């Protein structure tokens, strides 16, 4: 499958919110939202969060953490990239135990990782919500600090206020089900609060339908998915432009389970460009923190029946 960002022209967008858009077409509807129906959706099988860390020297690193569903057996996996090296050779760094520390050489730096997930608490996602911390150092400088055990983190690893890192993407994989929900912070919003995102698909009549909710509000609905299997729509979240793109071609025409891709990407303005993750360390535009949420959904056999 091609990268979803390559499927659309840079400025071929439609602003779709009930308080800022005009009448919609019969293909994409912008509607006031009734209460979100109670539905059952599977939790993600794994979650990968990517952060851009800036060292005091000005050098930047991409750090990706993959949390897996069977975490206690499989552990946390961490990837590193400096824009030239795709990942830590000979492969990603796996942290199999619930707590510990490790160090290694990467891109002419000494990388140290400390973590404690002993008391980590989880909801429907394999990523912990509380009771944990993960700390990454580069040449003894703290460049990434995650978790909520603040007193221990600050005592052992220094004040987090001076650490420069930003969340740039979140990738979740789902298997089965007809609805995919997650909770995400869109970097750059004025409130920087977490938002509930729900993507609901299904229905055979009329070729199926796709509905996107944010915080219980129906943002838009796409009908006749068998014909409109790729598209994009722009919504507003806390006054921030968020491009919403979908590619569900493989659900209808692919072999096997078929994988659909949904992406919600923040946009600094109407004139900003779509970007690929491997380029976010380059150029002035990369300095404007933008964030993308990607959902890979593998179709269940009864999705459009």
From TrEMBL:
Superkingdom of origin organism: Eukaryota
InterPro entries on file: DUF868_pln (IPR008586)
Annotated segments matching region Disordered: 20-45
Pfam families on file: DUF868 (PF05910)
Comp. bias intervals (Polar residues): 20-29
PANTHER family for this protein: EXPRESSED PROTEIN, FAMILY PROTEIN, PUTATIVE (DUF868)-RELATED
Full protein name: DUF868 family protein
Species this chain originates from: Trapa incisa
């Amino acid at each position: 499958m091609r990268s979803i960002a390559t499927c659309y022209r840079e400025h071929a967008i439609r602003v779709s919110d009930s308080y800022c858009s005009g009448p919609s077409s019969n293909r994409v509807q912008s509607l006031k939202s009734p209460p979100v129906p109670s539905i059952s959706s599977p939790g993600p099988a794994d979650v990968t969060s990517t952060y851009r860390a800036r060292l005091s020297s000005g050098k930047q690193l991409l750090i990706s953490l993959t949390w897996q569903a069977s975490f206690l057996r499989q552990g946390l996996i961490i990837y590193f990239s400096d824009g030239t090296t795709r990942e830590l050779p000979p492969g990603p760094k796996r942290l199999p135990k619930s707590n510990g520390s490790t160090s290694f050489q990467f891109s002419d730096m000494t990388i140290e990782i400390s973590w404690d997930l002993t008391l980590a608490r989880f909801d429907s996602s394999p990523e912990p919500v509380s009771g944990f911390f993960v700390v990454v150092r580069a040449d003894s400088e703290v460049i990434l600090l995650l978790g909520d055990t603040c007193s221990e983190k600050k005592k052992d690893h220094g004040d987090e206020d001076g650490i420069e890192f930003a969340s740039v993407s979140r990738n979740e994989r789902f298997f089965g089900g007809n609805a995919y929900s997650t909770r995400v912070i869109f970097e750059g919003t004025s409130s920087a609060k977490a938002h509930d995102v729900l993507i609901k698909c299904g229905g055979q009549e009329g070729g199926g339908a796709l509905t996107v909710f944010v915080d219980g509000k129906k943002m838009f609905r796409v009908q006749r998915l068998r014909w409109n299997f790729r598209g994009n729509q722009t919504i507003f979240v806390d006054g921030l432009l968020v491009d919403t793109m979908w590619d569900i071609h493989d659900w209808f025409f692919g072999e096997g389970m078929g994988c659909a891709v949904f992406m919600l990407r923040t946009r600094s303005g109407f004139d900003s460009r779509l970007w690929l993750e491997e380029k976010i360390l380059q150029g002035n535009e990369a300095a404007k923190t933008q964030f993308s949420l990607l959902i890979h959904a593998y179709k269940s056999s009864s999705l459009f029946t």
